[in-house]
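Reading is simple: each integer encodes one residue's backbone shape. The lines below illustrate:
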Amino acid sequence: MLMLKAARLIDPASRTDDVKDILIAERKIIKISDDLDLEADMIARAKGERLEVIDCSGLVAAPGLIDSHVHMREPGFCYKEDVSTAAEAAKVGGFTTIIGMANTKPSLDNKEAILEVIKKGRKTGIRVRTCANITKSMKGEELVNMRELREAGVVGFTDDGLPLTDASVVKEAMRQARILKMPLAFHEEDPRYVTEAGVNAGEVAISLGLTGADRAAEIMMVERDCKIALQTGAAVCIQHVSAKETVDLIRRAKRQGARVHAEATPHHFSLTEEAILKYGTLAKVNPPIRLEEDRLAIIEGLKDGTIDIIATDHAPHSKEEKDRDFTEAPSGMIGLETALSLGIMNLVDTGQLKLSQLINCMTYAPSLLYNLEGGAVKEDGVADVVVFDPNKNWTYEKTRSKSSNSPWLGSKLKGKVIMTICDGSIVYDARE
């Protein structure tokens, strides 16, 4: 039996922000109150269990973080990452639930592959969920058997990594997903507007002798898919928003009644295209990091709820791959271990978001979209909790990921995860 003593409980689901004791037993949160010392001792004695009391004075307790956009790279690319190592990195970052993307090899477009990922996820100590592909082999042509894959245990569908260029395929996918009450997530980059991926079409690209990826690549597809979402009534998520115009399109679609959600990544709200000059290929991502005005528009979208989810797009690559010439290196960076800190530093400490808003984007909001356990700290609810010190400075010296492709590796950060609790068990403890 475990009691978190005198924690500042931030629970967006119940709009709680107050100092509380939290009592955990039998994988559940059994009591939340102001002073549980006597009651907790009595309950422990009645159950014949030892009571472990953890002093959380000055610390925040919140729902275990949920990352709805993680590339676990298994199967097919286990030299970059696998289910187990992705989960280990997640624990350090305070995540108790991660959702895997389906751009693996082979693709996650069949029941057998899905069940294997789920099986491996059960051994990690956290909740590993996965999306399936929208189309077979990610070719953008033939839809997967969505009903069968839903029954196999997927929480959504996406061809992330590749855009769906055929509007008729998108419309049919949305129609089927609405019937099945399942969300779809879209990577919005029209290849017609991308000369070199991973760098914004602008001054930095020009200085490197490149054309880059034009913002129109995202804008055109988001405009199309918002319209189709409004027509079909499907729940869709626009992944890793990068352009200010995209934020405006999503905001308008929501006002019109479309069930459109959106992700912001820490790198898109923390960096601008100049990061390419400082970090090289470590800052090469799809869609690319763009201008300061885009970064500010993304933050404004988070403030007003246009963008409701913060997701890492954790994308491991080997050092050898990232050391290639810019045009040959793959896009993506790891992000599970630094997401909370970057949110605190670049959103909360700057006065743009309240800490409760940040937590909502990283817990309750993704849990609602993907129909997940967790996302709230409540009595008789699952005991998924992150405990962190929002004021603690730390240095990101090493990673538990197999890959190290982060521009923040070696940097001083603020906001440190102290403990990650999943299903009532401590799966990460920085006190040790």
Remarks:
- The chain has a mean pLDDT of 97.
- The CA atoms of residues 52 and 233 lie 48 Å apart.
- The first strand starts at residue 2 and ends at 11.
- The radius of gyration is 21 Å.
